[in-house]
Design goal:
Chain B: InterPro entries: NPR2-like (IPR009348). The complex is a heterodimer. By secondary structure, chain A is of the alpha+beta class. Chain A is 42% helix and 18% strand. Chain A is elongated. Classes of the chains: A alpha+beta, B alpha+beta. β5 (90-94) of chain A pairs antiparallel with β3 of chain B.
């Protein structure tokens, strides 16, 4: 059982008939009391384990994924808080069991007065004061999971309250459930059936709760229509973004971070088939979503997509963010021939991994490990292409890369450029003091460190004098650089060409290692060859380094 | 952190509201507010002796209700609960052990000589609680002597709730804090014995061998040290290793402090520190497909006053670079094929046992795609080159770098 799966879902109300636990799922049939077999210790000299909490009569907590030991009466008591605590997060931890809910007053004070005067004829109504939809979790879950469950509980509570005020839905469901409880309690003692079993066919709300529980355990997403009227949809990112049999977990914080960093040159990569995705969208979703889903392709950037679908870029981003959060898609850089992919660090390479067979059945006569080993050495995608291959083989190659990206087996490497000065200098030249300042300033040549001190400072002096004469106006343009950087740049032979230096000056903000080549190309409208030529010309001061894009890296975390 | 602590002593009778008996600081919670959480602080018998945490009133209440039954008490039972009240966003795991332990102390004090029920000793309760409150907030631990026989020792749990990492035989522990600052007497005897073998280059198996200690014990000690963030585990250094930069390499250009630290760390002993440009050039020179040996022949770090072993070590410790592991894996299309083929090959192997002694040493379980070169070499005793020869010679094995 997964740690973030709920253990149980409980509905509690408090009102004029006291606190009562109306429904819980899953309910354990009372006859289930199997005796645990006595474990035989492996080593007969081993100390017998201190039998703590194993007495099932007194044990309460979670065992084998079931909540046991808490009577319905106790649960009703501890899960219906004081009315002051309503409308806020309810979080209770008892040893290893965590209860999360969002208690709500069924009626605000003025509502109640209104109702009183309105329905004074119906005196027999049992007033309900508050209700609480509680999820039972294991106490060791992460706080963000707890937060998500609270969110779900709150959504259900708001929907229930709305329906209660509109239609007295919850009250009537409560009546139905209570009547079952009454019937069962009047039955003879030996009748071992659970009242919850009988509630299920008689209450729509109980069936809804059962569905919520089942779908949370199965997929992590919930689509619920309370009373056939109010939509409640929810997704548990911890579960939805849990890929490759639990080898990759994407945390919601990581999703938010990466969504904040989407750029127009990125694109969507769908993790589910489009044929599956389109019907699964809710009926009343915006037509823009279906249009975008139909037009999207991992080869098209968001910008192209926005032009193709005639949807503003900001809306494209919003839809993409939505699809990513719901685990339908992920963000990648569009596939192109110059992309460099390597095997992702957390990918599973075990032969027993189910991905191996999935791959072979998807791409006939191909072995996943063979393909992965080809991607072990970084080469642009065009380098993996067989020059004598047929066009359909190339198409298959692209399909293969998409397949592996979907399963996070590959990760893209980008090239980042850093400006590192050849000259090291700690101070700016002091123009007022002139010659005196030069003595204080310590200019150290990296290559010429073995030179005597006098010689190196002499060289620096000379150099500076010469260069000040040569480029009086360019100094102004390189303002964003430090003194040492500016000096080093001007020392590069290519700096003599004013055109090159102009382009270089324009691009200096990108040479801090925060922007990869593709981003520079996008923002500055340059071709790859232009950019590479410039970097080559200034290679004395520019270092390039290949690593992953931090934005997409979020999706690979374990 | 706003938190306080109080200890209600309760009477289970109707009409008599339970009252907070001793509170530190005084009057931080009103009677109305207390009523709101009373059900969790003085709960039903079913929930007694359990650690109960409740979020309410912008606080977190953490307590462990205790009931001592005895005919000598006025209602045949004494109920009490020492609660800690924490801010709403404080992680309660830190205090769970403390609350449970304190409840145990109080129980034994009461059982031994009625500390909680006798008037004269009960009067000292507020001062004891306030001392615990102050000391825990200030130092995270406290030691209070109640009488000659009883002393309360409490310490907040500092270890994080994260699962302990596994320590593998081929990993190398490296100190991430100053080794001299660690006083060896704080550690258990086994750890004290292995401390001096942790030099940043010895792997776990060698440490066990040199210190002459059972390897599972060494693993446990190192696991503890990792948990307490004293050491960090990095892969064993070899010239055939491949490392690549991570996005954190940006830190190195922006963070002046890290730069200085780096230059100090990677420089050769007894010589002037290397220049940042050279060090950064070496880090950028790391790429998939280029081993450390390639890097050395290309740039000759010795001439640049850089010790390549410490360069890699610093990179791994700060996360500026990461290791690409070399994993031999079979190329069968399905798992069944793999199982069938390995059975066949192992039968064939038995015939040629003498001629291919190395291949025999290398059981097929090492080649299922889960184990990297380091692990296999360490477990089977093969050298890197011997393993490389086997893998190269077998058409059914490919190498994946990840």
């Amino acid at each position: 059982m997964d740690l973030c799966d709920p253990v149980s879902i409980i509905l509690v109300t408090a009102g004029s008939r006291g606190q009562s636990l109306l429904f819980r799922y899953p309910f354990i049939p009372p006859c289930q009391t199997e005796r645990r077999e006595k474990e035989i210790p492996k080593n007969r000299f081993a100390l017998a384990k201190v039998e703590e909490n194993t007495d099932t009569r007194n044990f309460s907590g979670i065992k084998d994924g079931h909540l046991i030991g808490f009577s319905d009466c106790t649960l009703a008591n501890i899960l219906s808080p004081n009315s002051d605590a309503c409308g806020t997060k309810f979080e209770l931890k008892v040893d290893e069991v965590l209860f999360v809910g969002h208690p709500m007053l069924a009626y605000e004070r003025h509502d109640r007065e209104f109702k009183r005067s309105d329905s004074s004829s119906r005196k027999d109504d049992v007033m309900m004061k508050l209700f609480n939809v509680v999820f039972v979790l294991q106490a060791s879950v992460e706080p963000s999971v707890v937060h998500c469950y609270h969110d779900l509980s709150k959504r259900i509570a708001i929907a229930l309250k709305h329906e209660e005020i509109r239609y007295r839905y919850l009250s009537s469901e409560r009546e139905a459930m209570l009547s079952v409880h009454d019937e069962m309690s009047s039955m003879p003692e030996d009748c071992a059936e659970s009242p919850f079993q009988h509630i299920l066919p008689r209450s729509k709300l109980a069936r809804d709760f059962k569905d919520v529980f089942k779908s949370l355990c199965a997929t992590g997403s919930v689509r619920l229509k309370i009373n056939g009227w109010v939509n409640v949809s929810f997704c548990l990112p911890h579960k939805v973004h849990n890929l490759n049999q639990g080898t990759i977990h994407v945390k919601p914080e990581a999703i938010h971070k990466s969504l904040a960093a989407i750029r127009p040159y990125h694109t969507l990569l769908f993790l589910v088939d489009k044929e599956y995705l389109v019907p699964s969208l809710p009926g009343d979703c915006s037509p823009a979503v279906t249009r975008l889903v139909k037009m999207a392709s991992p080869l098209k950037s968001f910008q192209t997509l926005s032009q193709d679908t005639d949807i503003p870029l900001s809306q494209v981003f919003a839809i993409a963010a939505h699809l990513v959060y719901w685990g339908m898609a992920t963000i990648v850089f569009p596939l192109c021939e110059s992309n460099v992919y390597v095997v992702a660090p957390n990918s599973s390479t075990s032969i027993s991994s189910p991905l191996v067979e999935e791959f072979t059945s998807r791409f006939l006569r191909m072995s996943l490990h063979n393909v992965l080993s080809k991607f072990s050495l970084p080469a642009p995608l065009s380098g993996h292409k067989d020059p004598l291959g047929l066009p359909q083989q190339q198409a298959e190659q692209v399909q293969m890369v998409v397949w592996m990206l979907q399963r996070r087996l590959l990760i893209q490497l980008h090239t980042y450029v850093f400006l590192v000065p050849t000259v090291q200098s700690d101070q700016w030249p002091n123009s007022q003091t002139g010659g005196l300042g030069l003595e204080e300033r310590k200019v150290r040549w990296i290559f010429g460190d073995s030179f005597p001190d006098g010689r190196s400072s002499f060289a620096a002096d000379e150099q500076e004098a010469a260069e000040n004469e040569a480029h009086p106006e360019l100094e102004e343009e390189l303002k964003s650089l430090t003194y040492a950087e500016r000096k080093s740049v001007l020392l590069v032979p290519a700096a003599l060409d004013p055109e090159d230096l102009k382009l270089f000056t324009r691009l200096t903000p990108y040479f801090r290692g925060n922007h990869h080549l593709e981003e520079v190309m996008y923002y500055e409208n340059l071709t790859r060859s232009q950019l590479l030529t410039l970097i080559e010309k200034f290679r004395d001061v520019l270092f390039s380094c290949q690593h992953e894009d931090p934005v997409t890296l979020y999706f690979y975390n374990r | 952190m706003r938190w306080a602590l109080f200890m209600p002593l309760a009477w289970r009778t109707r009409g008599n509201d339970p009252q907070g008996e001793a509170k530190v600081p005084e009057d931080f919670i009103s009677k109305e507010e207390f009523d709101c959480v009373a059900v969790y602080i003085i709960p039903k018998p079913e929930l007694q002796s359990k650690l109960i945490t409740i979020n309410a009133l912008d606080h977190k209440f953490i307590g462990c209700p205790i009931s001592i039954e005895n005919a000598k008490y006025s209602r045949n039972a004494l109920l009490f609960n020492v609660c800690f009240v924490l801010g709403p966003n404080v992680d309660t795991i830190r205090y769970e052990g403390v609350v449970k332990k304190l409840a145990g102390y109080m129980t034994s004090l009461e059982l031994e000589y009625g500390f909680l029920s006798q008037e004269e000793t009960k009067a000292s309760l507020p001062s004891v609680l306030s001392e615990i409150f102050l000391e825990l907030n200030k130092k995270g631990k406290c030691m209070i002597q109640i009488d000659e026989a009883n002393t309360i020792h409490l310490k907040c749990n500092i270890a994080t709730s994260s699962d302990p990492c596994s320590v593998l035989d081929h990993q190398v522990p490296v100190f991430i804090c100053n080794k001299d600052a660690l006083s060896s007497s704080e550690w258990d005897i086994t750890t004290q014995q292995i401390l001096r073998y942790i030099d940043g280059f010895n792997h776990v198996q060698r440490i066990a061998g040199e210190a002459d200690i059972e390897i599972s014990l060494v693993r446990m000690c190192i696991q503890d040290m990792v948990q307490y963030k004293v050491v960090k585990l990095i892969p064993i250094f070899q010239y055939s290793n491949v490392y690549i930069p991570t996005p954190d390499v940006n830190q190195l250009t922006h963070d002046k402090k890290l730069q200085e630290e780096c230059l100090k760390y990677v420089g050769k002993k007894g010589r002037a520190p290397p220049s940042f440009r050279d060090v950064f050039m070496l880090y950028c020179g790391l790429s998939p497909g280029a081993t450390v040996r390639d890097l050395c022949t290309r740039y000759n770090p010795g001439n640049l006053r850089v010790d390549e072993r410490r360069l890699i070590q610093f990179g791994m410790l700060t996360g500026v670079i990461r290791r690409l592991h070399k994993i031999p894996s079979p190329t069968y299309n399905t798992f069944q094929d793999y199982v069938i083929n390995t059975q066949k090959s192992s039968q064939a192997e038995r015939k040629h046992r003498d001629s291919e002694a190395n291949r025999f040493k290398l059981a097929d379980k090492w080649l299922d795609g889960n184990h990297n070169y380091d692990e296999i070499c360490c477990k089977t005793g093969l050298t890197y080159q011997e393993l490389e020869d086997i893998v190269e010679g077998d058409p059914h094995i490919v190498v994946i770098w990840k």
